[in-house]
Design goal:
With about 140 residues, the chain is mostly helical. It is about 70% helix and about 0% strand. Helix 1 packs across helix 4. The longest helix is centred in the C-terminal third of the chain and has 27 residues. It starts with a helix and ends in a 13-residue tail after the last helix.
Length: about 140
């Protein structure tokens, strides 16, 4: 069910991007650049940004993680693959460094490990920078 919706979403994105009239090579390069730089930008925001920006990044990361789970893979990678003949993904260099075979299953599993590790580091960094989040119940009693 979600795979069909994911495929339709990727189709819509591809059609929109193709309407810009860039070559496939340029489009793929721009998408991969975005894919590589977004994690760097989010880490910088988490290191030096305000508490509000930190929470926005957490929200964004949760949405991306949920989409990854629902569509069994990264939507951005799927869009990238519409503009190239290779099967490269952003996690491939890491898998090569640790001598893991480049299969779709390994890419998926190690991407999950990466995401879970990223969430742990994110919440550790939040605690370090801003202290324990203030959790409260609807009746006004703080936990």
């Amino acid at each position: 069910m979600f795979k069909d919706k994911g495929d339709k979403f990727v189709d819509m994105c591809e059609n929109f991007i193709r309407s810009i009239n860039l070559s496939d090579k340029s489009t793929c390069m721009l998408l991969r650049t975005l894919h590589f730089t977004m994690p760097i930008v989010t880490v910088i925001i988490m290191l030096i940004g305000s508490k509000t920006w930190f929470k926005i990044i957490i929200f964004f990361n949760i949405i991306v993680f949920i989409l990854f789970l629902i569509f069994h893979g990264c939507i951005l990678s799927k869009i990238e693959h519409r503009f190239t003949d290779d099967d490269f993904t952003v996690i491939d260099p890491f898998l090569e460094i640790i001598n893991v075979e480049l299969t779709n299953e390994n890419r998926h599993v190690y991407s999950l490990y990466s995401s879970i590790s990223g969430f742990m580091v994110t919440f550790g960094l939040y605690y370090y920078r801003f202290g324990m989040p203030n959790l409260s119940m609807s009746n006004g009693v703080e936990l």
